[in-house]
Amino acid sequence: MTSHHLPVRVARADLAATAVAAGIHPDTLRKFVELGLVTAHVDTSGRLWFARTVPASVRTIVRLHSDLAVNYAGIALVLDLLARIEQLEQHRTIRLEGDTPWT
């Protein structure tokens, strides 16, 4: 049996478009990438590309830094904890939907 794999197109945006969508300067977005707060994919020409979910993450980073005065090291920890909470909530929802009542 032959397997045919089609290329998968991932929705992504370049540095400028992502910065505009997030409401920040492109240099600030580059800084977030360097600090490991945001993930970017680099193509063969060296251009940065971002997932469409990055602007929302960047707005969270800016809010934590500006409104709550959390430093960038603290922001990394907060983002990890928020991701973990989301994982646990999804796991709990899946478990609740799949469980049969004990009574």
TrEMBL record:
<dbReference type="Pfam" id="PF13591">
    <property type="entry name" value="MerR_2"/>
</dbReference>
<dbReference type="InterPro" id="IPR009061">
    <property type="entry name" value="DNA-bd_dom_put_sf"/>
</dbReference>
<protein>
    <submittedName>
        <fullName>HspR protein</fullName>
    </submittedName>
</protein>
